[in-house]
């Protein structure tokens, strides 16, 4: 099963360069059979640009997640803590085997059943 995640272009670039190997989320998919992340770059790109295999998911307090992933998160501590402000739990998705598509793919071409970019994530068959 795949899950499409909307990710800001600055973080997408870091993922594609190998500088960011963890994607952080305040909530995570309930389905445990998700093994692939589809990376949707938000505006101004507005396209599907890559896929990544999930290498594991960490679930801990934001402080503990930061300590474990800070060197590979592609974000500074202030930005990380601001994102998780008010959250008791943080999730870090390990992105393994990132495959960049040769060309960005419009959402309507990649997944015609998806009518709008996901706010957080959406399951893809």
From TrEMBL:
<dbReference type="InterPro" id="IPR007374">
    <property type="entry name" value="ASCH_domain"/>
</dbReference>
<protein>
    <submittedName>
        <fullName>Phage associated protein</fullName>
    </submittedName>
</protein>
<feature type="domain" description="ASCH">
    <location>
        <begin position="5"/>
        <end position="99"/>
    </location>
</feature>
<dbReference type="InterPro" id="IPR015947">
    <property type="entry name" value="PUA-like_sf"/>
</dbReference>
<dbReference type="Pfam" id="PF04266">
    <property type="entry name" value="ASCH"/>
</dbReference>
